[in-house]
Amino acid sequence: MGAPLPDSDLHAELTGVAQALADAARAAILPHFRTTSLEIDNKHAQGFDPVTAADRAAERAMRDILAERRPQDAILGEEFGRSAGESGLTWVLDPIDGTRGFMSGTPTWGVLIALCDASGPILGVIDQPYIGERFLGGFGQALWNGPRGGGSLRARTGAALEAAVLMSTFPEVGTPEERAAFERVASRARLTRYGCDCYAYALLAMGQVDLVIEAGLQAYDICAPIAVIEAAGGIVTDWQGQTVHEGGQVLAAATPELHAAALTHLRG
């Protein structure tokens, strides 16, 4: 084994791997999108948790790249679970976040790729293959690119809760109690919208919306959005203001002031 890379070189290598993972996932997923032959399985015996061949193909493609380029790292993927590593770094993969949207033909699903160390997410990618937009945050970068250009990501500032745009994936949010807490915030916001899955977090990092509030998330749902939003100047915690990279109840906010206001109402 050679000498350790300087931080700047290591960061460039890891960013390059993340980009390669996103490229591979795009190539694996797009042949399945908006096709009439898409087969959908249900992972949840008591409800509906869809998975498709595209989910599995994308995660396999990303794991193949990691086996070649970063075999020393651990992996946590939604479809194929955990693989051990020895570097102290873990790649957290959600090959299609928003499979319900994917199977419905909406372009609001995305590929989530995060790199975590013991402290939590340090690099994240939110990629929307069909639109061709990619959002990346970490190692001093907060960038987006797409078919109409690209630039820096920056969460917007200055919006009070009464002027805020709030997003969540499901109208019911979670349990009845969680829904009631969400409504205390939503009733004070200017506008509430639903259904965008991970794309809502990208919009927050881009400065288009101000809050995302959700419940019942897993680590692979939120690690990449945490890295992207924090790189763009926003804040992501649980509903108690604590770290949330293991999943659960999520509050993402554009500013500390908006985060504090939302927390107050979530707590009742």
UniProtKB/TrEMBL annotation:
SUPFAM superfamilies: Carbohydrate phosphatase
Entry keyword Hydrolase: yes
Cofactor needs: Mg(2+)
UniProt-listed PROSITE patterns: IMP_1, IMP_2
Primary enzyme class: hydrolase
UniProt pathway: Amino-acid biosynthesis; L-histidine biosynthesis; L-histidine from 5-phospho-alpha-D-ribose 1-diphosphate: step 8/9
Xref: CDD domains: Bacterial_IMPase_like_1 (cd01641)
InterPro entries to which the protein is assigned, alphabetical: His_9_proposed, Inositol_monoP_metal-BS, Inositol_monoP_superfamily, Inositol_monophosphatase-like, Inositol_monophosphatase_CS
Enzyme Commission number(s) from the entry: 3.1.3.15
Pfam families, per database record: Inositol_P (PF00459)
GO molecular function terms listed in the Swiss-Prot or TrEMBL record: histidinol-phosphatase activity
Keyword annotations of the record: Amino-acid biosynthesis, Histidine biosynthesis, Hydrolase, Magnesium, Metal-binding
Catalysis performed (reactions): L-histidinol phosphate + H2O = L-histidinol + phosphate
Family label: Belongs to the inositol monophosphatase superfamily.
NCBIfam families: his_9_HisN (TIGR02067)
Protein name: Histidinol-phosphatase
Name of the gene: hisN
